[in-house]
Design brief:
3-stranded antiparallel beta sheet; two-stranded antiparallel sheet; about 90 residues; Hypothetical Cytosolic Protein, Chain: A; alpha+beta
Amino acid sequence: MAKKVPLRQCVGCGEMKSKKEMMRVLKTAENEICIDVTGKKNGRGAYVCRSSECLARARKNKGLERSFKMGIPTEVYDRLEREFEDLEAE
């Protein structure tokens, strides 16, 4: 029997993809928002495709706000965009 691949929905485009293909954005207990590269940190996670396009879409449709049930300041999105660009450059 084939192993089941965990699928996650992108908060930007709404597509279902495997966890490995996606980037996990994390809300910690202190309400801090960061990118969880390992995918194993504790906290509430939301997934975004590994493209700055989807991050921009998530920003526009407030996908992360809905997932985390809180407002997200512009600076946080700007930081996430920079972290995304760094990861895309690797």
